[in-house]
Specification:
six-stranded antiparallel beta barrel, 3 domains, alpha+beta, about 30% strand, Gyrase A, domain 2
Length: about 375
């Protein structure tokens, strides 16, 4: 047993210097159950705005300001209060695990009234509570909204009613964490069972003892040998540094708000025929894409067997084998100038027809 402890100690020392060239560490695709962030939130006021605060009819902002002034010993009739330089906001933050009293955490501030911009404002002292109602941090400070109230040169529209304060909250109370040093549960949420099986085998091979067992399709339970319990966190770190070859997911992500499509290059499409606007797409033993003539197409018109008159239709044909990848299809459509919106419609139709061999996730 002592020899195993010495060997494990050497592994801990060397593991940071030995890396697989193509593997992925467990810490990057999994998490340890019980070690997580805690969500905090609070209601506060942002002052110092240049006339971009809540409008006069926003009663809860006026009431909040009057109540705050009253606690400071200043009595003001509610009907006499003007709030164009003040905005009511919700403040949110993530309390990291093991955060100590006095630690600083980032906060996000979002307008809840009809303020047009939080630019230049300062968040007044705001308690941040967890779901149990207990206050764990307090936030205060000047906001940064990250841009102007317009579309920037990079084409990204900034949102002046949401801001952040880096390190804007101070932790006032610690969250009690009680870790079971006899076992580690590693969760692979969002991963396939193949990754869980591979991780179990990698852990057992790394330690040299069958200490890892699959508890459910997304969780591995690792029993810690007694001699390693005093070095619980060293042992955990070593486990999370183990590398595996994770299974690649066939998934297409679509953000309809921005027209963004993200996909894996090896997502397959089966034989299918699509008609969309002035496009006709057929995937069988080849990919045939046709488009009506437009002024920006610089290729010369070529007669086709089914269209002897080149003045009425212009054809571009891309030859591909059956079961082409979605990357090939998208490249061909982009070459024809298909807009992101039309591309999204086409991909949704292909998925509905059962011809897209991937999960389609719409954000």
């Amino acid at each position: 047993m002592f020899k195993r402890l010495i060997a494990f100690t050497l592994i801990i020392i060397v593991i940071s210097f030995v890396k697989s060239s193509a593997g992925v560490k467990l810490r990057d695709i999994a998490s340890v159950e019980g070690i997580r962030n805690n969500q905090l939130f609070g209601y506060g006021l942002v002052a110092g705005l240049n006339g971009t605060g809540d409008k006069q009819g926003t009663e809860f902002t006026i009431q909040s300001l009057v109540n705050m002034l009253d606690r400071l010993g200043i009595t003001v009739p509610q009907n006499d209060v003007r709030v164009k330089n003040v905005a009511a906001v919700m403040v949110t933050a993530k309390l990291p695990p093991f955060a100590k009293t006095g630690s600083l955490i980032d906060v996000t501030i979002s307008s809840v009234g009809d303020s047009s911009s939080l630019e230049g404002g300062t968040l007044l002292l705001t308690p941040l509570a967890a779901a149990n109602g207990q206050v764990y941090a307090v936030a205060q400070g000047p906001l940064s909204i990250g841009g102007l109230n317009s579309t920037s040169e990079d084409g990204v529209e900034h949102h002046p009613t949401v801001g952040i304060i880096p390190g804007g909250a101070t932790v006032e109370k610690e969250v009690e964490f009680v870790m079971d040093t006899s076992v580690i549960s590693i969760s692979f949420t969002g991963r396939g069972i193949a990754d869980v099986v591979q991780a179990k085998s990698a852990i057992n091979s790394f330690i040299g003892v069958d200490i890892a067992q699959i508890e459910n399709p997304s969780t591995i339970r690792v029993a810690i040998p007694i001699e390693f319990e005093p070095r619980y966190y060293d042992f955990m770190s070593s486990l999370l540094n183990i590398e595996i070859q994770p299974e690649a997911f066939a998934k297409v992500i679509i953000d309809e708000r921005t027209g963004t499509v993200v996909m894996g290059s090896d997502v397959k499409i089966s034989a299918i025929a699509i008609s969309h606007g002035n496009l006709s797409i057929t995937i069988s033993d080849q990919l045939d894409i046709r488009k009506a003539p437009t002024a920006d197409i610089d290729q010369p018109l070529q007669p086709q067997p089914d269209n002897p008159n080149p003045a009425t239709e212009q054809v571009r044909v891309v030859m591909m084998p059956e079961a082409v990848t979605i990357s090939d299809l998208v490249k061909a459509l982009n070459a024809l100038g298909v807009s992101p919106r039309n591309l999204i419609s086409i991909l949704q139709a292909v998925k509905s027809a059962g011809a897209l061999y991937a999960d389609l996730e719409i954000m």
